[in-house]
Amino acid sequence: MKDKEFYLSAEVKYNCLDIVKMWGTDFELKVYSLIDTDYEVAENCIELYGESKPDLYAFEVSLDDGISYDYMNDAINWYANHIDMLILRTDPRADFLEDSLPIAGN
Q1: What domain range is 16 assigned to?
Q2: pLDDT level of residue 58 (50, 70, 90 thresholds)
Q3: Does some domain include residue 10?
């Protein structure tokens, strides 16, 4: 079996866009839309963010599973290859809202 074979799964119970899973493990990377949902960081999770204009994304993995942190970057990069996305360390919603407001006096 090849190392780090990822695939997509959608599970309604998580209220997210997609779940990136890795064959043969319990790894799950949840992908949330920051535009369509009221995303808040869950306890005991680590998150990163992505931007693919006009969409904004949050990626989340549970720290309960020791392998999650090890595979998170690879899973995000795998997912980002499917769309034109920038990976960010901070929540882009504030910048996104500021960029979409009209400039005063125009």
Answers
A1: 6-100
A2: very high
A3: yes
Is residue 28 a contact partner of residue 21, using CB atoms and an 8 Å limit? yes
Q: Are the C-beta atoms of 45 and 60 separated by less than 8 Å?
A: yes
Does the predicted TM-score (pTM) go above 0.85? no
Whether 90 maps to a domain, the answer reads: yes
Tell me the residue type at 70: D
Contact 55, 35 (CB under 8 A): yes
Q: Which two tokens stand for residue 60?
A: 């989340």
Residue 14 exposed, middle or buried by CB count within 10 Å (0-12, 13-18, 19+): middle
CA distances for 79 relative to 28, 62, 73, 76, 99, angstroms: 12, 18, 10, 5, 26
